[in-house]
Amino acid sequence: MKAEANPVIAEAVIRLEDIKRDFGPVRALKGVSFSLFPGRALALVGESGCGKTTCARIIARLDKPTGGRLFFRGQELTARGEAGAERSYRREVQMVFQDPFSSLNPAFTVSHHLARPLQLHRQSGVKADLAQEITRLLASVGLEPEVTRQKFPHELSGGQRQRVNIARALAVAPSVLVADEPTSMLDVSIRKDILDLLARVKRENDLAMLYITHDIATAAHVAEEIVVMFAGQMVEWGDTESVLSDPRHPYTRLLLSAVPDGSRPFVTGGSARFLEQAEKVRSLSRPESADIEQVGPNHFIRALGVSNARLPKS
Ligand SMILES: Nc1ncnc2c1ncn2[C@@H]1O[C@H](COP(=O)(O)OP(=O)(O)OP(=O)(O)O)[C@@H](O)[C@H]1O
Known about the structure:
disordered N terminus; 35% helix; 8-stranded mixed beta sheet; single chain; alpha/beta; 12 strands; 23% strand; 11 helices; Rossmann fold; binds adenosine-5'-triphosphate
């Protein structure tokens, strides 16, 4: 994402520059570039296998790119950083995972899950009463502190567990939150509540957020910017409002055309005609292309290298 396209925003917290990741012959990321800014979220959208989780893992330093550069507050992160800097980076960048059931230890209470990261954070200088901090954190994610603190994970609903996971991520006062499909395993009825919570904690904590989803319809709930990915490439990106209201790439249009109610995964179902058209769009979007076209103040698409006449109508 080009910072200069929006001069009011602050310096990027995270910047990916032409990130590539190969797994043997599989080219999972073919040159991905975007930035995350404080108090703003970027939605990374695409179907299964397009490279979303690989991006998240590279940002969290759980995986190393095979090419390109990763920056934190303007400093390039090298393949093997100094141990102290690595630890501090891992505190700055927190993740919320898809599965709220497996990410909490069934043997420990909610208090225990929050106390540990809070204690670690206090070592880095913040002094406050631990019980008070747990109360504050639970309240900040919409959980009743007195009722919730002594509960074990199995006594909580999926949505409550995901709130605990978000509280745990916030406990170390990160500057970056990566939420990888945070609602896809939750009941449809509570997904919007969790997205609203993510949008609120982003604002209140000035977080630079990466919101990963296969569901393009949810991007606008959380994210000011969007990157649509297909087969390891960014195909359309920019202001969420601009991309969703005026999608220019056929693949983005395909995703939007398959969103009947915002809850059905677009990769399944659909009429035979739709599936045939979807395959056509995918095969047109697959070839690598370095041609980028600016179609709005902060709105870009990757050129297909074919005439529009060959594109299926959406
Ligand atoms: N450790 C690995 N070894 C081999 N291939 C991998 C590995 N991790 C990812 N891949 C491949 O890289 C590509 C991108 O995977 P990735 O998990 O990033 O996609 P995704 O968009 O997050 O999909 P999903 O939504 O299903 O998690 C896929 O083709 C996947 O099979």
